[in-house]
Fold:
Amino acid sequence: QAQLRESGGDLVQAGESLRLSCAASGSGFGAQAVAWYRRAPGNQREYVASIRTGGLTDYSETVRGRFTISRDDAKNTVYLQMTNLKVEDTAVYYCTTGFQSGSVVSWYDNYGQGTQVTVSS
Structure:
């Protein structure tokens, strides 16, 4: 399993943009799917987006059209470009990887320390 480090979180105003990074150490990152999750205070962890090997992406309904997930396997990094941020996007954002076999992904529990995104009104 890759060790992950999230970064890029900040305090921004509603409507602004941020780009988060998920950097992985170790080998084999390019053969793994990667997902972003977030946890707001008092809430359970919530799925945000994922990207598979080959570039297939998926988004939750709450972020589709505003967030874009991408990967640079040469840099062992996955990005989450967030635009038109809303107050309700405030959360700690985490990434995780998963073993991909065909269309099935078995997700690991290898979240990093997370990065805080705070959106003010």
